[in-house]
């Protein structure tokens, strides 16, 4: 990925995050003590909401560089929110912050079409705290600055909203400055070590050590006390406020760092382990507002680190998105989860990646299949009037079908492959991965097809096996899932990876 591509994708991710935050606040239940009267549910899809959703659909397909696009296209929806008298003050505040963020990142300049009139907004917003000599600071000094700034954020909570907002803006500026430098930091061999010893030259300024420590600190802010389910839709708590602040900072760090995070092992492991642990854990019990920010965070990570988060993405889709979007949860939570699913499906390669990595792997969930079932269930409900959730789900189905069609047209339709194979031609260990050294595309397609067939037959074998062990064993041989005579390892793998037989396996079996 080139520097320009990384920057363009980071801008798209940033705009998507801001749109998601504003939409979540528009849907958020009203504080009963507030004088603001919320519009009825049927007005959720108002002109403002539709303009934000239209912008979201455009974000990842701009067709040209962001600096050449008229800024009014992506500023107008946020300005409409600010000017509206029918939306809560929190949504107005987030919209103002979004415009501030766009101006700070300098997406447009004096040469951009319509850029001159948009620059007028910069005179009424806070300027960024910057200095050219800041690159000479040491890692320890940078961490001290960030820590001191966060202490001001905490202490200002009881001293007035204006002081706290100012401190938060300052800390946001610091995170942007620090992580925007990450792509320029060279990778050292000693980074693979767990040692925290400073190995860099002090004269070279701060680098990866401060970035790792600060990112670890931001992840720790997500670790708050669990909110009871009955209180999820209540006005924002102090813990939720800290989580949202941390997610905003983490999103900024990821947007500005891009795929350069993957070049630094310690930072990558922190995202794979610490960050995703919190995102999956709190995503299952969070409010719609927090879930919206979590979805944006995972989508940003997917864009830049998709090759490094295979297991993490499966867990997030299976245990967060699909559960939150299921019937029984609040309409607001379902809408946010379905929006998150659609945003992933809008990515050109997501559908095929999910099908190959999960649905065609015997040890993974059928993520693509479950997404399709969920969207169909919401798009075609048993009865009732047309809802915004139903429209969303139908849009998601159209996006998936369009993505599949686009990928078909990119390939040679006169290829040698026909319909999906019904039978497995020969015994192949279903738990073994395809060789990464094999660049033969035809062999890879054949491997994926056979593996998907194996996965379906493993499920059938599990059902047979639970009813009658002998018939189940015979079906394994007939379906070429085990060798003849049976290999003990193949039988063990069948018991281990087939969900239907795990309970029986725990009790012990005699063959």
UniProtKB/TrEMBL annotation:
Sequence intervals crossing the membrane: none
UniProt domain Mon2/Sec7/BIG1-like HUS: residue ranges: 209-367
Main location, first listed in the record: membrane
GO cellular component labels: membrane
GO terms for MF: guanyl-nucleotide exchange factor activity
Membrane association type: Peripheral membrane protein
Keyword Transport on entry: no
Entry keyword Ribosomal protein: no
GO biological process entries: regulation of ARF protein signal transduction
Keywords for the protein's UniProt record, in alphabetical order: Guanine-nucleotide releasing factor
InterPro entries: ARM-type_fold, Mon2/Sec7/BIG1-like_HUS, Sec7_dom_sf
Pfam families (alphabetical): Sec7-like_HUS
UniProt subcellular location: Membrane
Superkingdom of this protein's organism: Eukaryota
PANTHER family referenced in this protein's UniProt entry, alphabetically: ARF GUANINE-NUCLEOTIDE EXCHANGE FACTOR GNL2, GUANYL-NUCLEOTIDE EXCHANGE FACTOR
Name of this chain's protein: Mon2/Sec7/BIG1-like HUS domain-containing protein
Lineage: Eukaryota, Viridiplantae, Streptophyta, Embryophyta, Tracheophyta
